[in-house]
Write a structure and sequence with these properties.
Helices cover 0% and strands 56% of the residues. The strands form two sheets. Strands 2, 4, 5, 6, 9, 10 and 11 form a seven-stranded mixed sheet that branches. Strands 1-3-8-7 form a four-stranded antiparallel sheet, with no helix packed on it. The chain is globular, with a radius of gyration of 13 Å. By secondary structure, it is mostly beta strands.
Length: 118
């Protein structure tokens, strides 16, 4: 059974930092493409970043480029999202998701709430 469990959300001040984690199980994490997707209050889903584990390539949305870093520890089957220079517009529920070519996002975590406020 595939499971994705996020942790590390919380409250941060503008300009601060947070690191989200996503513990994966039930599939070969090291060969997978994994993404972070967020949903701000009252808004739709917004793709944030993807890590292609096989190649270690990463891509980012323009809105977070330079402030957010996606990474993975294949030994721990864990995906991370390091968020720096946080802005109020980063407030959202952050989901990690498994991406499969031709199928899209096939598995999602339960989400981690991030609130950026002074």
């Amino acid at each position: 059974e595939v499971q994705l469990v996020e942790s590390g959300g919380g409250l941060a001040q503008p300009g601060g930092s947070l690191r989200l984690s996503c513990a994966a199980s039930g599939f070969t994490f090291s060969n997978s493409a994994m993404s972070w997707i967020r949903q701000a209050p009252g808004k739709g889903l917004e793709w944030v970043s993807t890590l292609y584990s096989a190649s270690a390539n990463t891509v980012y949305a323009d809105s977070v480029k330079g402030r957010i870093t996606i990474s993975a520890d294949n030994a721990k089957d864990t995906l991370y999202l390091q968020m720096n220079s946080l802005k109020s517009e980063d407030t959202a529920v952050y989901y990690c998701a498994k991406y499969e070519y031709g199928l899209g996002y096939t598995y999602w975590g339960q989400g981690a709430q991030v609130i950026v406020s002074s």
